[in-house]
Amino acid sequence: MSLVLIALTLAVIHCAIDEWKTGMHQAVKFSETPYSTCFADLLYTLKEWEKYTIQSGLKACETLRRDLLKVCRTNAGIVDSGNDSESGSPSTETRKNLLSKMHFARWE
């Protein structure tokens, strides 16, 4: 998954959080004006972190990108190699590593 897509997703999450900043939901338009700086800052930080991990011999950024892509592909129903059956369903290990409903707060 590209760092640009990760930064864009984080900027969208930032917008969603802004919708609740007063404690009550108020729709916020996701537009270039307030969020272009947020996006640019996030992308810069991700690129710097990627450089740092490469220089340090770490694989954290590479692992994050690969894992996020795997989660997105699996939740979209796209089958990756490494399935545990010919039916095309994700392997047990892949399913265990996905985010599920219990990873997210519930609004009741």
TrEMBL record:
Q: Which residues form the signal peptide?
A: 1-15
Segments forming domain DUF6532: 1-49
Region Disordered, annotated ranges: 78-97
What is the name attached to this protein's record? DUF6532 domain-containing protein
Q: Where is the composition biased (Polar residues)?
A: 82-92
Q: Which InterPro entries match?
A: DUF6532
| Membrane-spanning residues | none
Q: Which UniProt keywords apply?
A: Signal
Could you tell me the superkingdom of the organism this chain comes from? Answer: Eukaryota
